[in-house]
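Hi support team,

I've been running sequence recovery on a batch of backbones for a student project. Most finish fine, but this one hangs at about 90% for roughly twenty minutes before it completes. I'm not sure whether the input is malformed or the queue is just slow. I've pasted the structure tokens below so you can try to reproduce it. Let me know if you need the job ID as well.

Thanks,
M.K.
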């Protein structure tokens, strides 16, 4: 979708904002004994805001971060790290 016209970017950005607002409102109303929910909701909100940032800055959602470390003068060590929000769904 990153190569398509811009309406998809703004559509999914709006969904991310709406979901973040709704989940933040839910988070503000949870009871003291709902500790697991109090941990889970901010993680979901963080994933939605991370995706929102990627959509607005890059135009698409980044799944992996690539790191490269020079080793000597001619070699380098490269590895990728899967973003935590994607680890649960892929």
């Amino acid at each position: 979708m990153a190569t398509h016209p811009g309406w998809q970017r703004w559509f999914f950005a709006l969904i991310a904002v709406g979901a973040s607002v709704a989940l933040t409102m839910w988070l503000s109303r949870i009871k003291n004994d709902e500790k697991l929910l109090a941990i889970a909701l901010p993680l979901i909100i963080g994933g939605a805001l991370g995706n929102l940032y990627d959509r607005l800055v890059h135009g698409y959602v980044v799944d992996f971060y690539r790191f490269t470390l020079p080793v000597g003068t001619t070699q380098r060590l490269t590895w990728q790290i899967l973003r935590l929000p994607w680890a649960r769904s892929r």
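--
Follow-up from support: It reproduced on our side and the slowdown came from queue contention, not your input. Strands lie at 64-71, 75-82. No action needed from you.
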